[in-house]
Design goal:
- With about 375 residues, the protein is mainly α.
- The chain has one domain: MFS general substrate transporter like domains (Growth Hormone, Chain: A).
- The chain contains 16 helices and no strands.
- Helix 1 runs antiparallel to helix 7, helix 3 packs antiparallel against helix 15 and helix 6 packs antiparallel against helix 11.
- The chain starts with a helix and ends in a 5-residue tail after the last helix.
Length: about 375
């Protein structure tokens, strides 16, 4: 549990730093002349650029029997790259520096989650990952509130916020020396020199296919913020989108641990299926409703969806993977689900520039397909007594 708490604090501070930046990125890109396709490129590249690193870092952390170096350097690269946002004078430069920042996430994600998994009992893995996501989202809430206060009560330039974020990100490194290494060189030495997915079970591969399909339609929250920026004008186009972003993160924060505990009790696959379906409900709401009260409810539900999906996907993959291949399994999951972020973002951006409702129709359609495939998955493995 000590590892889970320490890694939680690292994520809290790092996400505080990130979320000082992220709510203003769609707005800043709009100021620099970017449109829907720019938002899609930013949101897609930021994940896809780190996808290959996730499976490589997961594999090598298994191979070397060491997790901590990958975690440290991952957070360090992300911290340094935040300072570079200050130098950006165009939206393509913002995209480039965001890609660099996400390579740090690629280095750290799978090894860090393998550390969390090894530090928790299997029957409580949902709770453990939920605790970590609660810390992470707590940082997101604090960062979002901080940038809202900056926008309301200071007159500093938007790009000056990037320097503040970089300083905070460096502080996230402080708890890492106190974490306990969980890798096993004895297990890792038995692994093959080349990455192979053959060691993953058919059940795990099937689930990763479903999660990847869902990720293809689960386009970035940036489109939700961008949509609200266009709905509310007359001086509200900066403050209200950030306020709604805070509501989404608060909802996510409050349900991160309860959703993990619920998943441990009724089954992670059941909670995940509900989360996939809830995304469809939210996207349908964005097609139909335009008022502020409706947006508040939809952003609340969007946070519930992330609470159901984000941590429980990781916990479920971890549960389905053999102990010696957890890093590789998590890396494989991350790689496939983030590789599709680029086509997902580009598709969402292209459709948005045609008609904003088309983007949310796309998300709704993919959500329905993912739920249907999940139903087939559950039926297949329920017959085997293994869901």
């Amino acid at each position: 549990m000590n590892n889970i708490i320490l890694l939680g604090f690292v994520s809290l501070i790092n996400d505080l730093s990130s979320k000082i930046i992220l709510p203003i990125l769609p707005l800043y890109i709009s100021q620099l002349g970017g449109t829907g396709i720019a938002i899609g490129l930013l949101s897609g590249l930021r994940e896809s650029a780190s996808s290959l690193l996730k499976v490589i870092s997961g594999y090598w952390s298994d191979k070397l029997g060491k997790r901590k170096p990958f975690v440290f350097w991952g957070y360090f690269v992300s911290a340094i790259s935040k300072f570079l946002f200050y130098l950006a004078g165009s939206w393509p430069a913002i995209v480039l520096f965001r890609v660099l920042e996400r390579t740090g996430k690629g280095l750290r994600s799978a090894p860090r989650d393998a550390m969390i998994s090894a530090s928790a009992q299997k029957e409580r893995s949902g709770r453990a990952f939920g605790i970590h996501r609660a810390f992470d989202t707590g940082g997101a809430v604090l960062g979002s509130i901080a940038v809202l206060l900056i926008l309301l009560f200071t007159g500093i330039e938007l790009k000056t916020i990037f320097i503040i974020a970089g300083v905070i990100a460096m502080l996230a490194l402080a708890p890492l020396p106190f974490t306990r290494e969980t890798g096993s060189s004895q297990k890792a030495s038995k692994m093959r020199l080349m990455i192979s997915f053959k060691q993953l079970s058919k059940k795990l591969k099937f689930f990763i296919v479903i999660a990847t399909l869902f990720a293809l339609g689960n386009f970035s929250w940036m489109f939700f913020v961008y949509k609200t920026q266009q709905l509310f004008t007359n001086g509200q186009e900066f403050v209200l989108p950030v306020a709604l972003y805070i509501i989404y993160n608060l909802s996510y924060l409050l349900l991160a641990v309860p959703s993990g505990m619920l998943a441990d009790k009724i089954g992670k696959s059941n909670v995940l299926m509900m989360g996939y379906g809830l995304f469809g409900l939210v996207t349908a709401g964005f097609i139909v409703f335009k008022s502020l009260p409706a947006m508040i409810v939809l952003f609340l539900l969007y946070g519930v969806m992330f609470a159901f999906v984000e941590a429980n996907e990781r916990a479920y993959v971890s549960d389905l993977a053999a102990e010696e291949y957890k890093g590789t399994a998590l890396g494989t999951f991350y790689t496939l689900t983030t590789l599709v972020a680029l086509p997902s973002g580009l598709m969402a951006g292209f459709l948005y520039d045609l008609n904003s409702s088309y983007t949310f129709m796309y998300g709704l359609a993919v959500s329905v397909l993912a739920v249907m495939l999940f139903a087939i998955y559950k039926t297949r493995y329920r017959r085997q007594g293994n869901v």
